[in-house]
Amino acid sequence: MIRTAFWRTVIPAGVAVGVLEVTTHLPSQGRAAPIYHTVADEWITPLMRRFLDPETAHEVALEFARRGWSPKHRPSALEQQLRVSSQLFGLTFNNPIGLAAGFDKHGTVVQPMLDLGFGFVEIGTVTPQAQPGNPKPRMFRLTEDRALINRYGFNSVGAEQVAENLAQSIQPGTKGIVGVNVGKNKTTEHAVDDYVQGIRILGPLADYLVINISSPNTPGLRDLQHKDALQPLLEACLAARDALARRVPLLVKLAPDLSDDEITQVAQLCLQLQVDGLIVSNTTNVRPDDLLSYHRGELGGLSGAPLKDKSTHCIRQVYAATNGELPIIGVGGIESGKDVYEKLSAGASLVQVYSPLVYHGPGLVSRLRHELAEHMLQNGYRDISQVIGLDHEELQWKRRYERLKERQKMTCGDEENDAVLVNEQQQQ
């Protein structure tokens, strides 16, 4: 079925691309050409939504990528005027926009996704043993709401197979960061052992690891976010990470359905245990009253535009709870450069997208990067680090005070230093 649907979509698109190859500047710019992006975003993506069910469309998109037919990133002259790279967890991210887990579950299209313009790609969720996930249908488009509901249930080919896939995908010279998101098998009786096994098998191939304890589609999984269960799980995972030949950053992915107090407790525990960062947030079980789609009542996790404000609130809460000391990757409803800017201002150091690609096409990545550069310049910022945490004015001033204090210590004594700082604060 997938093969038939694939060719039914590809043949007309291939004819169109073939004509464009000889009538435009496509040969000189290849898959980064504007017309290639237009075909992918305005022709192929809508056709796939119209004629293919969501899971089949997902498989066709993966096949496009595997065959080398996906667009490539269109560089932005505006972005090149700015510093959008950052250092986090000892890694260098060349731009702050990443692919969220869920698209490349099995680690088969890492390089094509990096070529698309993502600064980093997160694969998974990967379980230790192969499992089919929940029965189909298990993914639904909420087109009127620019959203998805999925209840995949960690369908995975298993950690060993994913490790083989990654070994083939990540070649010497691969540019970009590759994260691996690990989870537990549905029927396991020992969740901690599953996460430890995933870390041992996939840690050597990952630039960073993510402990997924927040999917709504695996029974009992979100119970692991409670402190009594979370602390021993994290301690075991950190010990497994520390046993690897090299230090791999370990992050935790949280649900947006926790209360503010629960988010604060989890964030502070992660900070206490020296977890490297948090991903905020996963999909939500909550259904806003204003959803319009026929599929709004389906069981599963809701993602896309309706999650945007909720995830941004969670990011802001985590940042405040940890005084900005725990790096955050923000996820949920990002469709524009303005959305990226808002997530960064709330406290995220990086962001991830997935669901909006279904509605905006693969060219969204290049557009997000360009639009983010526009928003940074419009607000007078030329370095991505200046945007992170802007919503937290008190913390921003505290850090500025500390920077000034360090600077003045290098040039004058303590008494003179204090006088200078007081004077500067009064002027501001």
Automatic annotation (TrEMBL):
Gene3D superfamilies: Aldolase class I (3.20.20.70). CDD domains: DHOD_2_like. Pathway: Pyrimidine metabolism; UMP biosynthesis via de novo pathway; orotate from (S)-dihydroorotate (quinone route): step 1/1. Residues 1-16 form the signal peptide. It is a single-pass membrane protein. It is found in: Membrane; Mitochondrion inner membrane. GO terms for cellular component: mitochondrial inner membrane. InterPro entries: Aldolase_TIM (IPR013785), DHO_dehydrogenase (IPR050074), Dihydroorotate_DH_2 (IPR005719), Dihydroorotate_DH_cat (IPR005720), Dihydroorotate_DH_CS (IPR001295). Binds 1 FMN per subunit. Its EC number is 1.3.5.2. NCBIfam families: PRK05286.1-2, PRK05286.2-5, pyrD_sub2. This is Dihydroorotate dehydrogenase (quinone), mitochondrial. It comes from Fistulifera solaris.
